Fold:
Amino acid sequence: MVRASCYHRSMTPRPELLRQISRLAGQDVFASRFGSLDTAAPSVEELRALIDERCDEIAAALVEEAAASDDVTSPETAQAYLDDRLRTLGDILTPEQAERLLTAFAGKTSGW
Structure:
């Protein structure tokens, strides 16, 4: 399980992290809320709000990514893939969000 730190300093997330969140949550949704990726500067709290609202869509996008990966060949490798992706999102996710994504992902990949 991914554990997020309880202390989060105010920061603007790295551009590559913003690209990932935009892709997972939906580029149109991201752009309508924060503007172009080139100029977007959402806070961690704003990104968490977006993740809360788009959790199901993010889980579905993660499942699609896992299904397209040559490295994912079983439920175990799918779980390892998700664990890695959640680590990449790091401090952006709250523990509750990580748990929601884990649960949704498991439900969508249980038949693999």
Notes: The chain has one domain: 15-109.
